[in-house]
Amino acid sequence: MRNKILNWQIGGSVFIIMFGSFLHFLFELSGNFPPIGAISAVNESIWEHLKLGYWPLVFFGILEYRNVNKESQNFFLANLVSALLILFIIPVFFYTYTAIIGEHILWLDIFSFIFAVSVGQFVSYKIMMKSEFNLKISYISVFGIIIIGVLFVVFTYFPPQIPLFEDSLTGMYGIPI
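User: That's the sequence. What structure does it adopt?
Assistant: Structure tokens below.
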């Protein structure tokens, strides 16, 4: 059981990083097709880059659930915590290093993405190994995962006018329609 879940978490890290990298370019590759913007980065804002960790985690989670749900009762909690860690680490890392250095550096952004995904998947693995289980927490976790997805979709098309949502290249917000 332990090795099976560990292998899935390692595979998940690779999938999230690879598919997330693809999602960075998918909107442009689609000819800026607005529905694709719901799951891919539509601009260079921090918010849009957070989708690159979230949606691959969700897509991989659907596949993973079919294969490890019998081995871990804490699957949904583990995935929610992984998502929250990814969504926390990336902006904290970005705002910290840019405040210290004074500029944006691409390789540090890529590193922060890989680091955030790795930490998220590691913590997810640790949670999946716990034997304690609470059905209520599982339901709350599923709800949390769904709410995050809804927020990504809504804020892609109707972003708040705050720096987290501002395209660092154009100064625009949200999907360029």
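Residues 40 and 72 are 30 Å apart (CA to CA).
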